[in-house]
Write a structure and sequence with these properties.
Layout (H helix, E strand, L loop, with lengths): L6 H14 L12 H8 L3 H13 L3 E4 L3 E4 L20 E2 L5 H7 L7 E2 L12 H15 L13 H11 L12 E3 L1 H13 L5 E6 L3 H9 L3 E8 L3 E2 L1 H10 L2 E6 L13 H14 L2 E5 L22 E6 L11 E4 L4 H11 L5 H13 L2 H26 L5 E2 L7 E5 L6 H10 L2 E2 L1 E2 L12 E5 L6 H18 L2
Parallel strand pairs: 4-15, 6-7, 6-9, 9-10, 10-11
Antiparallel strand pairs: 1-2, 3-7, 5-12, 7-8, 11-12, 13-14, 14-17, 16-17
Length: 474
């Protein structure tokens, strides 16, 4: 840059060097316009023009009323997991022998955990929740520990009703049933819409808990590939509907686990129309929907009509141990209420009251803003470490929300062997075979970014990269 270059170009170049050298990393908030003006002794107009140049270069982004932030690195060729195309054939889901071993490791504090998709303890607003809990105990006494009604405490259903308006769901408290987490909500939805031997459409890859429910209910699964950007491949679902009588489709439209992709609204509208036309139920798993890395909470498929059962929980946003979820049954309200009354009529009463008060007056929106920024930073940091330490041939997703990464290794890579060797080194990961009803995605690995990424975690990623290289040399 010559001495005669405009001041804003000189400043933009200086800031770009700071970003590229790591002084400011992805997700960091840049100093305010006024602060930068003071520190660099430049006019506010010069700083604004410099920030505009950095925006044009894709290095930073402006967020309304929040300032300017460093953007994550752009998707590079060869670093994004591709959708898997397979014939839409009904499959009886089998249990992987490695599943229990991986799950058992979650409670071991000596293990570096990349397996469990759960928030770090620092993400839980424990001080506020404790304050609310003590206040409820003083105010209600033993009344707070009574059985809940089968549909759940009305005060919680009213709070959830108001919260869901943000995603386009218009459901009153009497149209919502609270559950013990989202898994129970999904189980109720499946039981209400299918019978043993029915065919259900599932995403591929998809959350392994969904596949466990499909297996235990005696259902058959048709795998529908997931596009790493737009989610469920609707063309493939439409072709499967022409071949098979599908009773239900389980879908994660917002920040899908494990890919972190977001289904566009026009795709959601088309999916809802398919449901209405072919007479199957869409079961929407939306536990990550409020964890957008950029932009507002996306819409629910229910906004666009069709036969939709919406399932959610606070496990990813407030605290997993509260075990508070909900289901919005739509036209299946009577049957799901009947099943809930028989299956598990009583929920965690104190947990429901705590969540209700936190949603209403505990600073939930402020809490969400904080954890969204943290999860963006952690996903970006872990992704950069994977790119740095894993061997050539590894591709890694760039999620738009949530806090998991999806790694694609070469076709002959055995992620189950990789997971076993990782556990032996004190590191837990989830092999890709658990995310497919056929168990065939053995060259994929899921890593959770839910925990704070410190020196121990970065060293563990280096170890995983070494293990991956050793396996690829076999």
């Amino acid at each position: 840059m010559s001495a005669s270059s405009p001041l804003y170009l000189t400043l933009a170049e200086r800031l770009a060097v700071l970003i590229k050298s790591g002084t400011f990393t992805a997700g960091d908030r840049l100093p305010s316009i006024r602060q930068t003006s003071r520190e660099h002794q430049k006019s506010i107009t010069t700083v604004l023009e410099a920030y505009r140049i950095l925006e044009d270069q894709g290095l930073i982004e402006g967020r309304q009323r929040s300032g300017y932030f460093v953007k994550p690195p752009e998707i590079l060729k060869g670093q994004f997991a591709a959708a898997q195309k397979r014939p839409a054939t009904p499959i009886v889901v089998e249990q992987s022998a490695i599943f229990e071993a991986v799950m058992d490791s979650v409670a071991d504090h000596q293990v570096v955990h990349f397996a469990s998709a759960a928030p770090d303890d620092s993400m839980v607003p424990h001080a506020k929740l404790s304050t609310i809990s003590h206040a409820i105990g003083r105010r209600l006494g033993p009344v707070a520990l009574r059985y809940t009604p089968p549909m759940g405490h009305r005060v919680l259903r009213a709070a959830v009703s108001r919260k869901l308006l943000g995603s386009g769901i218009d459901a009153g408290p009497d149209q919502i049933i609270t559950t013990q987490g989202a898994t129970e909500a999904l189980l109720l939805a499946l039981r209400a819409t299918t019978k043993r031997g029915d065919i259900v459409a599932v995403e591929c890859p998809t959350y392994f808990g969904i596949l466990n429910l499909v297996r235990d209910l005696g259902l058959k699964a048709v795998e529908i590939p997931v596009d790493p950007v737009t989610g469920l491949a609707i063309d493939d679902l439409e072709r499967a509907l022409k071949k098979h009588r599908i009773a239900a489709c389980l879908v994660q439209p917002n920040f899908q686990n494990p890919l972190g992709c977001l289904m566009p609204d026009d795709h959601k509208k088309r999916l809802a129309a398919l449901s209405a036309r072919h007479g199957f139920t869409l079961i929407e798993d939306d536990v990550y929907g409020e964890l957008s890395h950029h932009g507002p909470t996306p819409s629910s498929i229910a906004l666009f009509g069709g036969d939709v059962i919406h399932c959610g929980s606070v496990s990813k946003t407030i605290a997993p141990g509260l075990r508070v979820g909900w289901v919005v049954p739509g036209q299946h309200l009577a049957e799901i209420k009947r099943l809930k009354t028989i299956q598990a009529p009583w929920n965690a009463s104190m947990s429901e009251l705590i969540v209700a008060e936190f949603l209403e007056a505990g600073g939930y929106d402020r809490h969400l803003r904080r954890i969204r920024e943290v999860y963006l930073a952690q996903c970006t940091r872990l992704r950069e470490e994977v790119i740095r330490h894993f061997p050539a041939g590894c591709q890694v997703s760039q999620p738009r929300g949530g806090f998991v990464l999806w790694l694609e290794m070469p076709p002959d890579f055995d992620s189950e062997v990789f997971a076993v060797r990782a556990i032996a080194r004190g590191i837990s990961v989830i092999p890709g075979s658990l995310f497919s009803s056929s168990g065939r995605m053995k060259n994929y690995v899921r890593l959770s970014c839910g925990r704070v990424i410190g020196e121990r975690e970065t060293a563990a990623i280096a170890t995983l990269g070494q293990l991956a290289a050793e396996l690829m040399q076999r």
